[in-house]
Amino acid sequence: MSDQQPRRIICKLGTNLLTSGTDRLDPGVLEAVVRQVAELRNAGAQVAVVTSGAVTAGRARVGVTRTRSSVGARQALAAIGQAQLVQRYDSLLQRYGLTAAQALITRGDVTERRGYLNVRNTLLRLLQYGVVPIINENDVVADDELRGGAFGENDALSALIANLIDADLLILLSDVDGVYDRDPRGDEQAELIPVLRNPVSMMQAAGEVDERSRGGMRAKLEAARRASAGGTDVVIASGHEPNVISRIAGGERLGTLVPADTTVRDSRERWLLAGLHNGEGLDLDPGAVRALTRQGRSLLPAGVTKVRGQFERGDVIQLYSPEQVPIAVGISNYSSAETVRIQGKKSSEIIEALGYNYGSSVVHRNNLALLPQTDA
User: Parallel, antiparallel, or unpaired for β 233-238 and 169-174?
Assistant: First the structure.
């Protein structure tokens, strides 16, 4: 893990941690988590929470006992519990002068390009406002986890969110101390692995899916693999360890560290470059080419001279120099039809041209990758 203090942190909280192994949320655990999140936020870090526990909260609210429920019943309980869950987080955060924002997301929302752009922009804006996003799988419409599958949706979701917002650190908290070389439940000689550089190597040895949490160690290892490949350090640790979030963020070695194996920028560039297709894109004037290739700036509508083909907002497009040479690829903030209406205009004229805007840039520098071996 980097020696620098992480500036953007995601904490993922599992059901077993939040319930302390019971059928109700443990208020003491929630209070401890929120206190640490508030300390980090008030110290200048940006923090998001990916939380389980909605179905459990829903059961407690309406007095439904824990029985084998249909998917529809669990979806209804999740809808009830989501309100209870975010209300608890918000009430606790208010004690520290902070505000919670609920974000219900499905895996498809962040893997499809347009959804990726919308979710990313929203979460980054919330973090800029100093708000703490409380993120959960939208169980009302996404039923994979509720069907009892082994995927562990919130573990996977936390990894996707980490890549989405360029998180420095993802902390996966549950009721286990970390990753062991063997299953500690059946082998007293099992030893904790302090640093794990290849999560795939331990997936076979990981325990089975936990009935209450729907996740388990295998899901956490898969999440760690995805997040670390995207440039995020991952720590798998016990949420019952005193001040575990603050201590990990402060650099103390707890649990198992899965270090990032690339930079966030490299990861995004690989994703963007893999998305090239059919040549849809934009022709740029010389000033825009210089701004992108030499000054690291975003592409503004004033620098666009021509729109090639048809594309939608959120599509990956190519950017061309006046010599018709592809110089970069990026995610477009506007569709081809919208870009035709704003090309050559100042950013301040976008609203006048469209009646709305999705930002001042056509392609933001954070969603742009320069193509190698060009003379631009």
Answer: parallel
Sheet bearing 368-370, strands edge to edge: 304-308, 281-284, 316-320, 326-331, 368-370
- Which of 28-42, 50-64, 100-114, 344-358 is predicted with the least confidence, judged by mean pLDDT? 100-114
Contact present, 1 and 259 (Cβ < 8 Å): yes
What is the chain's Cα-based Rg? Answer: 22
For residue 241, CA distances in Å to 17, 188, 201, 238 come to 11, 20, 26, 6
Burial of residue 229, with CB atoms counted within 10 A of its CB: 0-12 exposed, 13-18 middle, 19 or more buried: middle
The C-alpha atoms of residue 28 and residue 13 are separated, in whole angstroms, by 14
Residue showing tokens 């993922």: 12
Q: What is the pLDDT of residues 21-39, one digit of tens each?
A: 788 889 999 999 999 999 9
CA distance 364 to 354: 19
**331 token code pair:** 């995610």
String of DSSP letters for 137-157? E-TTT--TTTTT-SS-HHHHH
Provide mean pLDDT across the span 279-287.
93
List, in sequence order, every residue forming a beta bridge with 281; answer none if it has no partner: 308, 318
* 3-state secondary structure (DSSP) of residue 199: helix
At residue 150, the pLDDT reads 32
303: left (phi over 0), alpha (psi -120 to 50) or beta: alpha
The amino acid present at 143, given as its one-letter code, is: D
Task: Give CA separation, 68 vs 62, 76, 168, 241, in Å.
Answer: 16, 14, 39, 31
pTM, two decimals, is 0.72
